[in-house]
Amino acid sequence: MDFFNIADRDKLLLAEKIVTTLQELCPGWLPIRFTEAIQKYRTNTSIPQDTTNNLLKEALTSDLQEVNERLEQEQKSLLLCFDTFEIIEENPAIVVLSETSTFPDTYQCEHIKVLMAGRNALDWEHPNWKGREEEVQIVPLHPFSREETAAFIDGYLTDPAVDQMDREQLLALYQRTEGRPILIGLIVDALNNHLLTIDDLVKIPVHEFEGRLVSQINSLAKPMNWIVLFMAHVYHRFNLALLQHILSQANELPIGPLLNADELASQLAQLSFIRRAANSDDFVLHDEMRRLITIYCWEPLDPDHRFRKELSRSVMNYYVRETEREVHGPTRQIYIIGILYHRLFLDVDDGLRYYQQYFRQALHLQQISFARLLLLEVHKFQQILSNHQRQQLLLGEAQLLQREERPAEALTLLTELKSGTESIDKGSVYWLRLLQEQGKCYLKLSNFVEAAACFMQLLERESIRHDQVWSIDILAHLGYAYLQMGEFEHALCYFEEGIALSKRQSKKSLGELHYADLLIGISEVYRQQGKREEALRRVKIAHMMHRQAFLEGQSGEIKIGNSLIQLGNVYLDGSDISRADQCFREAYDIYLRANYQEGVATAYNCLGVAQMAVGQLDLASQWFEKAKIASIELNREQYIISLNSLGHIQKQQDNKDEAIMLFEKAITLSAEAHKSYQQAESFINLAEISIRMRQTERAEHALQEARIIATKGNYLRLLGKIEELEGIYHFVMNDYTIAFQHFSEYCHYMAQYNQQEYHAAVREITDRLLGLPGNQITTLSQQLIANWHSYGLEKDYPEFIHACNEILDMEDR
Question: Which sections of the protein are TPR repeats (predicted)?
């Protein structure tokens, strides 16, 4: 596949090319699902493009499993070769079927390997390559030797009048070029176009050679000299259609006599640093030449940027026209990036406004790769940005890092930015935004105490209190932080305050969206409190409002999927498995249509939980495996959930070693991703199975690690679970006094967390008490009552005392 050919840059045609070639190599292989999917796409063009791409990706991945098995059996690999990677290096997403995939896509076929050739070093900060250093083996091509230099010049000289170089001339040229192919090619161009002779070249001092040689481009015949300069400034892409547009508008540029398209194409193709695609009008300029031409040709010729600004305006007009034709998709994104570059070149303030518009939109629409590409484009102008503009840019980068599931890096960046704000008013919008983003990072890192502290600071600011939209956002995040800590009354208070504000918003539709989102938060509070009817009523209203907003074009369909997930969870808690399963499947369909892969992974995990609830462990395992595959490089949280869920299934099927392996992997990944809550939860899972296997040392270590994390994060439910397991461990060892001390602590935490969990804890303790020998029951019951009084909970939570007294009364009789 040669990316210089425009056809090879079409993601659908590229996938078809892989399939067609594979059929030639494997005659017995029938890509049934992919063939059906591509035919459906070609006959029904009304299917959304994102949905099509996702369906085709799934179909091809499924069909390739047979090829993968054959390669495994024959101990072979399939090698895909991609040439001219530099053409797509800024936006590799244009050639992969799914937006969530990275280039190169091997379609989950482990025996597919890739060889790619490109002129430029990989940018490890690019979203396509971030964190993938270990996947790539780089093989650099060294500069030409003296012999190769002589052979290249000899082979590409077209003018027979040029004398053959003698040994000294060759040595002189080799010293001046250092074997750099770009300069050796320029030597050939200069000789073929009679710009210099070999004698002229060897007389140029070594330290002046690069500049003097490159500047000869200005001496090319008109309009070729100008066209090469155009290509260097236009930068992103260049073809004859764009050239004709420039020539029709460039009134101030001294172009000279125009050539027809065929003559232009022929002369451009003869220059060593320009390539032309075999089946299109596209040309590409060597990246290194772009830098050299800017320094040695444009700067002396256009010191005040007057000519280049006119050129930028012309190119912008062309890109704007093209974006109107390309309403969606990666091609439109390429044009937007081109417009951004030239707007920044013309007026950096105007360019930054344009950047902010599309950057915020990309974040809102979950177009994370596109947002990263926009940010990279602005970074090229960093040297001319003011300090304030650089700070805003870094704040945007922190927001992007969060959405890239890199909250720890985002928090580090925000901390650095905050440390440099001594001279900035702590009530300024910039400082408040820093604090808000810091709170969101703490939420993603499961540091709910710190998150709540950030949002409380924000809520105390008068400027935020006057901004209703901002206030609602802060209240929603505060509610979520307290919800995760199990402090339901506080969570409910903030959610309801947000609802009151949303009702007063001037924009009715926006207020209703906030209202619906907050209702889902309230629904989750009631669900965790065991108040299922209250939870169900709230989420049903929210679901209806999200549907209405979608029909009116005020909201995306993803919000409907989110309310369906919550609705399904409420049904699941009420053991209405059929309705829960239906909700999860509807949400899955929505996420699939929207190509929202994080949602797809969430739906898979929910469907697995539903199947576990009815004892269908094999089906549940299949869903969790799907979730694991869907979330592996996309959403660590859902990936870790799938690992823990698979571990529980293995535990129930008595495959203890496999369960331990899954729980340990979940611990490692949650630590790497700074997911503290999930790390503590995974340690608890490991401790539970270790207790069953009587692996004392492992169980004690896991519980100790879980306790440290849960105490720091004030995770009440997990602290209660730790105490329960400690109690079970000592109970099994017949150490009843210590066991029931832990059981009373278990009840203590659950009383603070959740009435439903509290009542379940009381039942568990009374059941265990009643199973003891008679002489133990009285002493332990009295110990439990004394503990409860020491907590000061006898008035607010009397059920515990009543249960213990009933057991004592039974013993007295």
Answer: 472-505, 640-673
User: Which residues share a beta bridge with 115?
Assistant: 81
pLDDT at 163: 59
Mean pLDDT check: name the lowest of 249-263, 277-291, 406-420, 453-467: 249-263
HSE-CB at 791 with a 13 A cutoff on CA atoms is 24
Residue 562: CB atoms within 10 Å = 22
Find out whether 220 and 193 touch, Cβ atoms under 8 Å.
Answer: yes
The alpha carbon of 294 is separated from its chain's Cα centroid by a whole number of angstroms, namely 35
User: Up-side HSE of residue 323: CA atoms within 13 Å toward CB?
Assistant: 15
Q: Judge whether residue 604 has pLDDT over 80.
A: yes
From residue 76, how far is each of 70, 116, 268, 624 by CA, in Å?
8, 19, 42, 30
User: Which amino acid appears at position 710 of this protein?
Assistant: A
In percent, how much of the chain has pLDDT > 70?
91
Cα 100 from Cα 431, distance rounded (Å): 33
Q: Is the peptide bond before 31 cis (omega within 30 degrees of 0)?
A: no
Which pair of tokens denotes residue 660? 């331990």
* pTM: predicted TM-score of the whole model, two decimal places: 0.72
Kindly report the length of the chain: 813
Give buried/exposed letters for 397-427 (b at 16+ CB in 10 A, else e): bbbbbbbbbbbebbbebbeebeeeeeeeeee
Token output for 349 = 């303030």
Concatenating the DSSP letter of every residue in 388-408 gives HHHHHHHHHHHHHHHHTT-HH
CA-based radius of gyration for the chain: 33
Mind listing the pLDDT tens digit for each residue in 30-70?
Answer: 888 888 887 776 666 545 455 556 677 778 888 888 888 88
- The answer to whether 502 and 511 have CB atoms below 8 angstroms apart is yes
Q: How far apart are CA 184 and CA 176, in angstroms?
A: 10
The candidate with the shortest Cα–Cα distance to 455, out of 441, 467, 420, is 441
Phi/psi at 486 (5° precision): 85, 10
Which of 477, 528, 565 lies closest to 720 in space, CA to CA? 528
pLDDT for position 61: 82
Residue type, 112: I
**H-run or E-run covering 113:** strand 112-116
pLDDT at 549 over 70: yes
Specify the residue for token string 């992974």.
601
Mean pLDDT, the chain, whole residue set = 85
Model confidence at 667, in pLDDT bands (50, 70, 90)? very high
CB-based contact 724:743 (threshold 8 Å):
yes
Measured in Å, how far apart are the chain's first and last C-alpha atoms?
87
Contacts of residue 402, Cβ cutoff 8 Å, sequence gap at least 6: 410, 437, 440, 441, 444
Instruction: Measure the CA–CA gap between 139 and 116, rounded to whole angstroms.
Output: 10
Two tokens, residue 251: 């009134």
Half-sphere exposure of 651 (CA within 13 A, CB side): 21
DSSP string for 190-236 = HHHTTS--HHHHHHS-GGGHHHHHHGGGGGSPTTHHHHHHHHHHH-S
Taking only the tens place, the pLDDT of each residue in 464-511 is 767 778 888 899 999 999 988 888 889 999 999 999 888 876 555 555
